[in-house]
Amino acid sequence: MKKSNKNNGPSLFEHETSHDANRPLADILRPQSLGEVMGQEHLLGKDGALTLIVQSGHLPSIILWGPPGCGKTTLARILAKTSGYHFETLSAVVGGVNDLRQIFSEAEVRLKDGVKTLLMVDEIHRFNRGQQDVFLPYIEDGTITLVGATTENPSFELNGALLSRCKVLVLKRLESGALEKILERAETYMKKPLPVTKEAREMLIAMSDGDGRYLINLAETIFAARPLPLQQAGKGVITPEELMKFAQKRMPLYDKHQDSHYNLISALHKSLRGSDPDAALYWFCRMIDGGEDPLYICRRLTNFAVEDVGMADPNAVHIALAAKDAYDFMGSPEGELAIAHAVTYLATAPKSNANYVAFKSATNEAKRSGSLMPPKHILNAPTKLMREEGYSKGYMYDHNAKGGFSGQDYFPEGYGHKDFYFPKEKGYEREIKARLDKWRVLRAGKGE
Predict the structure, then answer these.
(1) In angstroms, rounded to a whole number, what is the distance separating the alpha carbons of residues 297 and 288?
(2) 348's torsion region: left (phi>0), alpha (psi -120 to 50) or beta?
(3) For residue 199, what are the CA distances in angstroms to 174, 180, 202, 236, 244?
(4) Of the listed ranges 51-60, 141-150, 194-203, 238-247, the one predicted with least confidence
(5) At a CB cut-off of 8 Å and minimum separation 6, what does 388 contact?
(6) How does DSSP assign 149-169, residue by residue?
(7) What SS3 state is found at 63?
(8) pLDDT tens digits, residue range 32-73?
(9) In Å, how far from its chain's centre is CA 297?
(10) Strand blocks (E) in 66-116
(11) What number of other Cβ atoms are within 10 A of residue 110's Cβ?
């Protein structure tokens, strides 16, 4: 029997049966070496960042950023074991500054005896900025080596001082190949196949949504619900239909107030801009499935209509606003179809950001030019004094001009005409461009 390891436990499959009986399968199958970790080859390959860190013999403080169930806690344990550090763990969900100070105090005593401490803080983004500052002096003087785990973007959730002292490593969601290997590990340990059909097995992996821990927990439930005698009798193999009844659908990894919220709306916006209605509908449905507020999506669609479709299809903004009104009128779930209609319309509409660019350019010019007065000939003259000052003198009424175009100068006197809006040869803007080109020629003929 393998000797007990207080901090890290025995290696894979080397367990005492009596002890295992009270342990979740996910804990039993937790990898005990870097070679057993699945799905993070970019960090654990020959030239991977974690491989090079271990080979260097120097363990820096690290922030592990990745989705749930991808191996963050496991990697922290393995790093402590590989480096010979004492391992401490704390969850920022339930722990606070007093718990941290106790850990730091014990680590200081341990360090005097030549033993370093690796502190793994799960959900480190839950600590506020002041709590995060508590780590700084203890990282600086080597009292602890911090491994923080987070599902949120560290750039937004961790303060700059802490980030500057840590190396950020990004973990990926587990792909189907890695999840299949995890299932095979579970079957090896249980010494029997998972009692599901091929189709149900594929569905099980898809339902896990890249989360290895969720997959193992669900597999453990299936093993317990379908004992071996039933399998041998041919009555215990679960079909996809039975699996849907047997297992509750896993909620999507989506927090409408956090990083995934911004990632998915960005994906929707870029898909619309790229004129891909299929991808746009996919990301729209992902957001709805995750619980996003449909009216937030409507606001973003309206923004897209004026920013990216613009004058190429002036009707686009009305379609976006109509989707909002239709959702308000019908509610959910029928209202989502109206929003989907707008998504498809915007994705397939001609695109032009010419008005957006013109607005930015005009804004910058307005700030630069200060408070120049309009030319007097386009100012109203309701009083005698204003008429004597030349207000309205020389103004040409465009409706009376030939072709309905006078070609007068409407910028400040001596300022010269500025061009901001350059329509593109797309959609309705083709017609606008033709008009503007004609008017520019006429205006130039007026001596401007």
Answers:
(1) 9
(2) alpha
(3) 19, 13, 5, 15, 12
(4) 238-247
(5) none
(6) EESS-HHHHS-HHHHTTSEEE
(7) strand
(8) 988 899 999 999 988 899 999 988 888 999 999 998 889 999
(9) 15
(10) 86-91
(11) 17
